[in-house]
Amino acid sequence: MTRYFEDLEPGDVFETSGYTVKKNEIIEFAEQFDPQPFHVDEAAAEDSIFGGLIASGIHTMALASKLTVEETFDMIANLGGRGMDDLQFHQPVRPGDTLHVELEVLETTPSERHSERGYVTYEQRVLDDSDAVVLSLRMETIVRRRPEGQTE
Amino acid sequence: MTRYFEDLEPGDVFETSGYTVKKNEIIEFAEQFDPQPFHVDEAAAEDSIFGGLIASGIHTMALASKLTVEETFDMIANLGGRGMDDLQFHQPVRPGDTLHVELEVLETTPSERHSERGYVTYEQRVLDDSDAVVLSLRMETIVRRRPEGQTE
Predict the structure, then answer these.
(1) CB A85 to CB B89 under 8 A?
(2) Residue A61 in contact with residue A70, Cβ under 8 Å?
(3) What is the pLDDT of residues A79-100, one digit of tens each?
(4) Deepest of A1, A89, A140, B29, by most Cβ within 10 A of its Cβ?
């Protein structure tokens, strides 16, 4: 069942399964997109303020996106993203950490310009094995309204 | 020459070279991290509100990170990131677009807890071939202060 704009309410929470971050993935992603010593070089990372190799923040966001899209947006009529806000890296993500995502609906607003669209703001929280939040952000998205004549 | 915290001032702007986004890269990144139809399926993308294939917003952020880290942070004593704010996707990024980054220093604040660190807030703007901003965000980072006894 596809959830349309009308089916989402503030307080709704969607939870994903876990994904274990592997060391070689951390290094490979960072070599492509964020080649700072503490992301790509184990010895240099030991001497960094993190005391060891950590994932690029954008890698963590990308993994959160993977979980969110594969396990949540597959059942939401998501039309696209508008932006993000209040993105905080609460804790470093290290090799072997298993991450999962909680996606909470914060606000829903019908579009005034496009009768077939609404805007949905979520808080996306990325948690580790011990349920500590490692990353949080707000994201604003565009969601299709239920087509006329279509009932639940 | 490494730029330390003391060498960065509000108004400083660093500009990177350009990077041309290829269609297969858009699809490959999105298949891994953001497998929504308008990022991975050309036919479905035609029918989306974007009218064609567009890059995942996180892919655009990752490419901006690549340019920023390779061409700017290589000469700044960057110790890590703290978070981001006010991230806006102004325009879709499409295959063949050539992106470059402007990184502007907005604010610098010495750390009260760590005498060897300061916090630097930047605005990161991603621009296309025609100098239109496609993505903008603020990022807060940790930068090393100039070691004692070391002069410019």
Answers:
(1) no
(2) no
(3) 999 999 999 999 999 999 999 9
(4) B29
Residue in the structure block whose two tokens are 């102004």 = B90
What is the pLDDT at residue A152? Answer: 57
Chain A residue with the nearest C-alpha to that of B70:
A35
Question: Confidence class of residue B148 from pLDDT cuts 50, 70 and 90?
Answer: confident
| B123, A94, A136, B140 alpha-carbon torsion, rounded to 10° | -20
- Evaluate if residue A62 carries a pLDDT over 60: yes
Which overall architecture, per CATH, does domain A5-144 show?
Roll (3.10)
Give A124's contacts (C-beta < 8 A, 6+ positions apart). A64, A68, A101, A102, A103, A136, A137, A138, A139
Residues A33, B57: C-beta atoms closer than 8 Å: no
Q: Using 50, 70 and 90 to split pLDDT, how confident is the model at A34?
A: very high
Arithmetic mean of pLDDT, A8-13: 97
Residue ranges covered by each domain of chain A: 5-144
Chain A residue with minimal CA distance to B62? Answer: A33
Report A:2-21 residues touching B (Cβ under 8 A). Answer: none
Q: What whole-number distance in Å separates Cα of residue A63 and Cα of residue A19?
A: 8
Tokens of A12: 């709704």
Q: What is the secondary structure of chain B as a DSSP string?
A: --B-GGG--TT-EEE---EEPPHHHHHHHHHHH---HHHH-HHHHHTSTTSS----HHHHHHHHHHHHHHHTGGGB-EEEEEEEEEEEE-S---TT-EEEEEEEEEEEEE-SS-TTEEEEEEEEEEE-TT--EEEEEEEEEEEEPPPTT---
User: In this predicted model, what pLDDT tens digit does every residue of B2-13 receive, in sequence order?
Assistant: 899 999 999 999
At A94 the pLDDT is 98
Number of Cβ within a 10 Å radius of residue B139: 23
